[in-house]
Amino acid sequence: MSATHPQGPRLHIQLPSVRWPAVPRTQRPRISRELLGGLALFAVYLLVDALNVPSRTPTAKANAERVIQLEQWLHVDVEGWLNGWLAGRPGLMTAANYEYASTYIVSAGLLLVLTYVWAPALYRQARTSFVVLNLLAFACFAVLPLMPPRMMPGFTDTVSTGGTVGSWGSPIVAGANQLAAMPSLHMAWALWVSVMLARTSRRFALQVASAIHVAVTLYVVLATANHYLLDAVGAAVVVVAAVAITEWWDRRHPGVALPTADAFFLDVETPGHAQNVGGLVLLGSPEPTCTRVRETIAAQLDELPHFTEQLATAEVHRWVPAGPIDWSHHLTELSLPEGSGLAELDDLVGQLTAQDLPRDRPLWRAWVIRGVGDQAAFCIVMHHCMADGIGAVAKLLNLLEPPYELPIPSRDGPSVLRRGAGVIQGLAQLATDAKPAAQLPTGGTRRGFATFEVPLDAVRDAARGHRMRVTELLLAATGVALARTDPELARQCAHQLRVSVPVMLRAPGADDGGNLTGAVIVDTPARDVPVDALRDEVREQAGAIRTPTRALASRWVMASALHAAPHAGRRWFARTVYGPKYFQAIVSNMPGPDRQFTLAGAPVSRVHPILPPAPGIPLTIGALSWNGALGITVVTDGAMLDARAFAGALGDRLAELPASAHSGGAPQTSARNN
Predict the structure, then answer these.
(1) What CA–CA distance (Å, rounded) separates 524 from 75?
(2) CA distance to 355, 458, 572, 641, 664, per residue, from 341 (Å)
(3) What is the pLDDT of residues 88-98, one digit of tens each?
(4) Can you tell me the distance from the alpha carbon of 236 to that of 459, in angstroms, rounded to the nearest whole number?
(5) Which helix (H) or strand (E) covers residue 586, if one does?
(6) The last residue of a domain, from among 252, 268, 292
(7) What domain range includes position 59?
(8) In this structure, is residue 382 part of a structural domain?
(9) pLDDT digits (tens, 9 = 90+) for 213-244
(10) pLDDT value at position 544?
(11) Domain boundary residue, one of 252, 280, 303
């Protein structure tokens, strides 16, 4: 096995800046989160329903008498004769009962499902306004108990008389709140559906059908004596208020809010510690023109989430359309000095990827770099809030030919109960995990950057021979390389390097946008000994990677638990846990494609991942398998560790491993890059 790593002086190049036209893209919110929101809304209803005690009945009846008197004074007391006419027609009465029990639920549910699937932007507005109108109605139920007409003298309770399944008089809803007549939720939901449909489609037939549904619902709620006409007026007021509140909120907070797992990387970012992920690609002849690369990116913008959006500055991070964007900012052509090679390319890429991405434009940049020996290079970065490591690789694949999708395992995920149990177990494990043996001193903001590659089959054979996974082999080699490169830093770590290992939790068919990984913290020995001498110790420590509980718990905290915290609390949490108090290095090992590609017509000869260091962390390693090679990128805090020296030591440690140090026992690795 052989490794190549660059040597040479540092290079400093000043870069120009610029922008171009946006294509807004809205992603669907997570279905599990929406279902939890629905359950929470139902829980609020149950809390209000708990107020329905016998002592409220006289108040509800007195309020009903006042409503009847007011309607009589206004000459709109139509419920009595509508109810009497319907009660004398059993067939129509039964049909009305079933309409009352079902169509408002079916229509509202269909609208939410259809907009979720086909119109995510409208779905968000519809969902929010639906929640608001129900909360307003629940508030009315709490402060204004109102007995419906069917419980008052002189009216026929058509539902109880007919024993209609699923409505009043049926055991299914026997416990429902029967003193919640104002406003009519049946009318409110029907009117809300009509308003949302008017915003979804301008088809005349659809508008007529919607109007008929509202009219039929109005007739039914009155004729079945479930509501007064003023209840329907109250429903209209609630719908108007809900839509107005939603629109007011959207004007103040435009765009789509970032999931907390994505916003986490905005919160941890500090000056000099840009959180950018991406890829570095070496290209053979014929070198592509910058125009051809721009056309390639432009053709894929619809497949690159948030590439045409920017962040709105507010308490909550939100995506909004970016407007006109200048290509000279997002795609720049640079040339290395004559005689430059991989070492000079690493220095330049280290400078490029360490730059903060301006928040007033889309959070990505790309460069075409000439003069890398007889090759060119293409580098692209995006903010970590847009993608995790695997997501960045998936985005890069959109720019390559032929089309290819990363091989996400097709196995079924755990059930909800098993996932919940795993999260609980993982939280307990995380709570009992010790902190690092020692906390390293604060470094600086100067970033070191170096790359090398090794044959993938040789690494896999060596891991298999040692009955280790590739990730475990990398962990062992990392500790040894640190002790060999900087014995003093290894001593400061108490010869035990605490490493954060990202674990992919991406399900088959999941959108490649956003952060869909969890982190597992493991220790690896930092001692200058042969790598194979550490096999058993590393395998034991890495057992946490092989069981998903810690990763599930980490993911749950970032994606769900942080929703309950205010932004200041989330920011404090992110900066506390994502740094030297809890780990000292990051090692990420990602699977990639096993075939040859072209970019803008040029063959891809080599690929390296780009990962950001956490603030205060001296070492970050990213490994990516690609077409028979394992491309490794080393990023360091330049004030604490020399990236090029460490890359050389790590490459040497991997190169010196025999393919079969231990012949006994079954291999622990498969053909996958794990």
Answers:
(1) 83
(2) 22, 26, 42, 22, 43
(3) 788 888 888 78
(4) 68
(5) strand 585-590
(6) 252
(7) 31-252
(8) yes
(9) 889 989 888 888 888 999 989 899 999 888 88
(10) 81
(11) 252
- Cβ distance 356 to 266 under 8 Å? no
| Token duo for residue 506 | 């991406």
State whether 69 and 194 are in the same domain.
yes
Number of CB atoms found within 10 A of residue 297's CB:
19
User: Strand, coil or helix: what is 92?
Assistant: helix
pLDDT digits (tens, 9 = 90+) for 606-631: 999 999 999 889 999 999 999 999 99
Summarised one tens digit per residue, pLDDT across range 291-334 is: 999 999 998 887 887 898 888 765 567 888 887 778 999 999 99
User: What is the count of structural domains for the chain?
Assistant: 3
Other Cβ atoms less than 10 A from the Cβ of 170: the count is 16
Report yes or no: 506 and 524 within 8 Å, Cβ to Cβ: no
Q: Does residue 378 share a domain with residue 272?
A: yes
Helix (H, G, I), strand (E, B) or coil at 129: helix
Map 225-262 to HEC letters. Answer: CCCCHHHHHHHHHHHHHHHHHHHHHHHHCCCEECCHHH
Q: Which two tokens stand for residue 537?
A: 């110790």
Is there a domain that residue 130 lies in? yes
Nearest by Cα to 349 from 456, 294, 276: 276
Query: Based on the domain organization, do 220 and 264 belong to the same domain?
Result: no
Half-sphere exposure of 113 (CA within 13 A, CB side): 6
Residues 23-53 as b or e (16 or more Cβ within 10 Å = b):
eebbeebeeeeeeeeeeeeeeebeebbeebe
Closest C-alpha to 195, from 255, 132, 144: 132
Q: Please report the pLDDT score of residue 316 as a whole number.
A: 66
Residues ≥6 apart with Cβ < 8 Å to 643: 350, 448, 449, 450, 634, 635, 636
pLDDT in tens, 45-80: 888 887 777 778 888 899 989 989 998 898 888 888
Same domain, residue pair 469 and 502: yes
Residue 330 tokens read as: 């997002």
Q: Is residue 24 part of a domain?
A: no
Residue 347 sits in a domain of what CATH number?
Answer: 3.30.559.10
% pLDDT > 90, the chain: 31
From first CA to last CA, the distance across the chain in angstroms is 19
DSSP at 489: H
Alpha-helical runs (H) found in 312-372: 327-330, 342-353
Same domain, 443 and 499: yes
> Cα(464)–Cα(458) distance, rounded to whole angstroms?
10
Extract the residue ranges of the chain whose pLDDT is less than 50. 2, 4-26, 166, 168-175, 508-512, 660-673
Interacting residues of 39 by C-beta distance below 8 A, sequence separation 6+: none
- How, if at all, do strands 629-637 and 331-335 pair? unpaired
How many Å apart are CA 101 and CA 138, to the nearest integer?
19
135 and 181 both lie in a single domain: yes
In a domain, 322, yes or no: yes
Contacts of 179 (CB under 8 A, 6+ apart): 52, 56, 57, 60, 141, 145, 146, 147, 148
**Backbone φ, ψ for residue 521 (5° rounding):** -100, 125
- 116 and 88 fall within a common domain: yes
Computed on alpha carbons and rounded to an integer, the radius of gyration of the chain in Å comes to 31
Do 475 and 586 have their domain in common? Answer: yes
Strand partners, 583: none
